[in-house]
User: Fold these one by one.
Assistant:
Number 1:
Amino acid sequence: MQKFSLKDYMVEPEGKIAKRVIYNDKNTLAFLLNIASGQSLPKHTHFDCTVLLQVIKGEAMVNVDGESVSMNESELLQIDGSEEMSVDNTGQNVLTLYVTISPQPPSENYLVDADL
């Protein structure tokens, strides 16, 4: 058993986005995305994985295959990996998303912290 505090992974992005990996194994990748106000996560897919996206703090517009969905705190969205997605921070403060991807993506780039 492991216990995590999401507050340890909530950071103010130095640029547009700060990704902090919480946990990963061959079955699951879990991380927080901290997106600065007015910034966006560009369009991308997640191969054959399932993505769960939960708004921890802030407001977002999530765009999936041309359809836009407004999301607020405590809301959760499931996205199939083959669907093209992007996320816009529509609030005045940092948007914090809790993300899980299962199974673990095939690209090593997804498994590490990143500052964009």
Number 2:
Amino acid sequence: MKVTAEICVIPLGAGVSVSQYIAACGPILEAAGLKPQLHAYGTNVEGEWDAVFAAFKECHQTIHDLGAPRVHTSIKVGTRTDREQTNDDKIAAVRGQP
């Protein structure tokens, strides 16, 4: 099943700046072929359900391995069965582009 998802990972107990932890997730999401689109409060991805959630799990483990004792994550997930739609398609529709 194809899924679009947004993940917002928040390392806890890791200090004030968490950018190094967030940056460590980028290569994981890319290696999984999920086309990550970073934005100010999270990252959008798209792919097969199992691949998306396996990558999210790997992000959690990597952040722990980097020293964060806790990780809080918010995830939004969407699926549709009527047609295929990418994140780029959704953005173009909002912007009024064909």
Number 3:
Amino acid sequence: MQKTLSATIAILVGGAVGQALLAWWSLPVLAALIALIFRLRPRPALLGGFLGGLLLWGGYAAILNVQNDGILSARIGELFGGLGGPLLVLVTGLFGAIFAALGAWTGSLTRGDSGS
């Protein structure tokens, strides 16, 4: 559990730096590298990646939503059938969570020891 928490924090911090400098797909690549470095098994890697991606993308989307008083999310929500701002923040967080979880899972399976 300690390694999973450490990997989650590493994905969160490393992902924040990576997202500022690189493209969106740097998050799953970074999560794969962290799971490989921390030698996580598949289930803890999925959990750590999911939480790290959810906190990173969901938190950043929430901050941006608050900073512009929800104007941008309301306009984008109209494009997607009238979704509200909080729901769009949640969807953004879930996309980040899925990307990071799959990246971390891939990194853990790269080791070849796939025992859970």
Number 4:
Amino acid sequence: MKVNKVIPLIRIFDEAKATEFYVNWLGFTVDWTHEFGSNSPLYLQVSKDEIILHLTEHHGDCTPGSKVFIDCVGLTEYHAELIEKNYRFNYPGLEEAPWNAITMEVIDPFGNKLLFSESKE
């Protein structure tokens, strides 16, 4: 088996709040959206660099409170960009992790967590 990519599904409940968090604050881009009809749940893909997430309002896809681990480089600079935006609902810090890394955790409006981790090695 050869894996091409892994794409986590993240449960959302409100398109405007998801856009404010993922697009306006974190800097993701909406790649595409899908709805079966005008009164159907939204399903969309967002991305930032090599990170791809599927955000879904479909109740059967996943549950809120998930956590995604994101191995990255340039976390200190990204953290500074986020703090500069002065997002009123989230003010993450940088922490030293026991696995010899710097981490930053952000929590979306639906209780999901993104843990960014940059190895010090």
